[in-house]
Amino acid sequence: MTTRSDGLRTIVPFDPDDPCTRLAPVLDPPERREFAAAMRDDVLDAVRAGGGEPELLSPEPIDADVPVTVDERSLSKAVNGVLAAAAERLLTGGRPCPNDTGQPVAVVMADLALATPRALAALFDADGDVVIAPGRGAGTNALVVRDPEFRVDYHGASYLDHRRAARNVEADVRTIDSYQLATDIDEPADLSELLVHGDGRAARWLRDAGFEVTVGEGRTAVERADDVRV
Amino acid sequence: MTTRSDGLRTIVPFDPDDPCTRLAPVLDPPERREFAAAMRDDVLDAVRAGGGEPELLSPEPIDADVPVTVDERSLSKAVNGVLAAAAERLLTGGRPCPNDTGQPVAVVMADLALATPRALAALFDADGDVVIAPGRGAGTNALVVRDPEFRVDYHGASYLDHRRAARNVEADVRTIDSYQLATDIDEPADLSELLVHGDGRAARWLRDAGFEVTVGEGRTAVERADDVRV
């Protein structure tokens, strides 16, 4: 493992207990755990290669080769715990550069199995007190926070809520236009995207598990060979 | 209307007869015609502002302030007619520069109502004999063709088919990572994306028609006020 000492501190929330529940129609619980871990490791690799320094944020201890912060609270509360601690350190420890606008922390979801180093580097390097990579359905798939007052709320239409929250603390918001970052692998239809565009561990895991893209009536779908179980 | 004389020739296929059929559950036929025209005009504006010189390709005559090519054949055949004619002119007329790799023609779908000038400029400016902006579901939402032998086939998993077709004519393929270009407004769930991210004619049309984003059980959806008809 290599990390850049000047990388952007990047939190990857990951819950190893019963992950990817919306994939339950096509993957059983042990399969979902394996698949979720493969996606997480793809994301950690892409974060590193994109210039970030990844850490996991989990409700329970995980054996990993990156720092793990354990916080049993909900996703939003746990992420806000990290943001508050970073802001606190900044306020008590002084800013590293005079023009630093705040503590830089990135948050990247663990199911962004299509995220490439290039897309993440564009996110990390974008100007803005708050930089958001929206997900389909008004989600927030990745963001960079440089404003010490900004807090997250992942419930509901979080992209719209985060824009509003940023305005409320007078933070400048930018949006990153990336299909790779917009595509979280969340439900069965998303597996098709991973099979079409992916080439990492998670895509290989899916192919090894017998999944393939099919075309019926002009639309693509995903099918699993009946006799293949990993 | 302004066009750049050095803009990339950009074909926008548009069929005014019964457009957006998959939106039939939420819009009646006259509404679908209005909405489709609003999306088309948003796309034409974005193409111009992104450095392209837009033309419509339609199975029937349309009254428009851009050139219209009428071709009654299927989408793929009509687009290939344009590509073949451009290649023919190139071969008989000589190449403008010694290193020109072929006739540049872009094809941009008329339902990319989220496409911004910036995203389209990135497409137009990207290197590659064939540059593809994939759509969700392995579609091809926009592309640039600089290879005189390349032809399209929009049926099925066209993104994969176009990559294969490019390899077959030894054309170098690039992919553009853009959520805006990946999001065609095709089915009711897509309307939510337009309401969340859009600010052009089509987004205004939808809002005026009473559509709004709702959040239920943590997921976003789109609803229409019962008493609003445009």
Give the C-level CATH assignment of the largest domain in chain A. Answer: Alpha Beta
- Low-pLDDT stretches of chain A are 1-5, 97-101
Distance between the termini of chain A: 27 Å
Beta-strand proportion of chain A? 15-25%
Work out the number of β strands of chain A: 9
Radius of gyration of chain A, in Å, reads 18 Å
DSSP helix count of chain A? 7
- Multimerization state: homodimer
* Largest interface, counted by CB within 8 Å of the partner chain's CB: A-B, 28 and 28 residues
Query: In order across it, which strands form the biggest sheet of chain A?
Result: 3-2-1-4-6-5-7
The amount of helix of chain A comes to: 25-40%
Write the element-wise H/E pattern of chain A from the N-terminal end onward. EHEEHEHEEHEHHHEE
What form of chain A results from the Cα inertia axes? Answer: globular
Major sheet of chain A, described briefly? 7 strands, mixed
CATH superfamily of the largest domain in chain A: Spore Coat Polysaccharide Biosynthesis Protein SpsA, Chain A
Overall tally of domains of chain A: 2
